[in-house]
Design goal:
12 helices, seven-stranded mixed sheet, 39% helix, Aspartate Aminotransferase, domain 1, alpha/beta, Aspartate Aminotransferase, domain 2, 362 residues
Length: 362
């Protein structure tokens, strides 16, 4: 039996282990100098030109970004339904209402025309997701926001290093959030990083993550404990040294798959976009679930279905709205392994298996 090809594979090396040990020996385990250094290095590495604020998860980052931007009960924030539930959850946690708009077929991200149609008098912001590592149509979305006096927030959970026409994701909106969960393009073990467009947003992010305090026992807002530990920051600092090479390998793996796959629709890349391939997501128009099952059982190759149940159909939301491109993507999308640990043999096996199944009509 051939070895299993995992759909994702976190890479943790001796450098990360040594960094954790260094922090453990220091005695400074909570938010401290490692977190500060990680924030500064994250901004420098990705060329964001913004203050970065480290938190304990990507979901926390979205939640605190929304709170710091003044989103509150009674407001509406337009989001895609074709995304992980944290996008809509973070809006709902502020008391606001996530309003679901359809995606574009060509990039799996928010469709600007659908966004404009969803705007009401209660809309305060648009929050696109740079899904799978491909940037959303930010120029059109920013223009819509400008016409209607709305804020733009970025869910860049999967898009470390992605860019559009030279501008890195996370540098377009009032805030941007990057997840540092283990399966992302880089990790801190768990965590998130939030970019802030202005000093007041940064100040509030730092307050909200730390029980509402800038000075101990002088709470300014009702805050949370969403701090990142120095242990996690130390891991993240080491990963920053490696993520550029990993991204290049992901892009090379994706190029090989695109050049050689048959019978499935590969992920397109928009003009001016840099795709970082958190996922390599193809469309399987007939029996996607059966295709994935055959990949696993017949060829020992893992894959992922992101996301078979759109947010608007989840129990907490249950919104009756027609989102045809979302429904189609939820039924057809399958993410194949693209991570940097894949060997040439692995890539050849993936291509051979997918092409054989597609030819057989699996």
């Amino acid at each position: 039996m051939t070895d299993f090809i995992a759909p994702a594979k976190p890479i943790i090396g001796d450098e990360e282990r040594a960094a954790v040990d260094r922090v453990m020996r220091s005695g400074m385990l909570a938010q401290g100098p490692e977190v500060k250094a990680f924030e500064e290095e994250f901004d420098e590495h990705f060329g964001l030109g913004r203050a970065c604020v480290a938190v304990n998860s990507g979901t926390s980052g979205l939640h605190l970004g929304l709170l710091s931007s003044g989103v509150k009960a009674g407001d509406e924030v337009i989001v895609p339904s074709f995304t992980f539930a944290a996008t809509a959850n973070s809006v709902a946690l502020t008391g606001a209402t996530p309003v679901f708009a359809d995606i574009s077929a060509d990039d799996f991200c928010l469709d600007p025309a659908a966004v404009e149609a969803a705007i009401t008098e209660r809309t305060v912001a648009i929050m696109p997701v740079h899904l799978y590592g491909h940037p959303a149509k930010m120029e059109q979305l920013l223009a819509i926001a400008d016409r209607h006096g709305l804020a733009v927030f970025e869910d860049a959970a999967q898009a470390h290093g992605a860019s559009l026409n030279g501008t890195p994701v996370g540098a377009f909106g009032k805030f941007g959030m990057f997840s540092l969960y283990p399966t992302k393009n880089m990790t801190s073990g768990e965590g998130g990083m939030v970019t802030a467009a202005d000093a007041e947003t940064e100040r509030l992010l730092r307050l909200y993550r730390n029980q509402g305090m800038a000075q101990q026992y002088h709470n300014e807002v009702v805050g949370l404990n969403n701090r990142m530990t120095d242990i996690h920051a130390a891991i993240g600092r080491e990963q920053l040294k490696k993520v550029g090479g990993w991204t290049k390998q992901r892009q090379e793996n994706a190029a090989y798959l695109t050049a050689n796959l048959e019978g499935v629709t590969p992920p397109p890349v928009a003009d001016g976009a840099v795709h970082v391939y958190h996922q390599y997501t193809v469309r399987v128009p007939q029996d996607r679930d059966g295709f994935a099952k055959a990949l696993r059982e017949e060829y020992n190759i893992g894959s992922g279905m992101f996301y078979p149940v759109p947010n608007h159909e989840l129990r907490p939301f249950q919104v009756d709205v027609e989102l045809p491109e979302t429904a189609k993507a939820a039924a057809e999308c399958l993410s194949l392994p693209v991570h940097p640990s894949l060997s040439e043999d692995d890539l050849g096996r993936i291509v051979g298996a997918v092409n054989a199944l597609a030819a057989a009509g699996a």
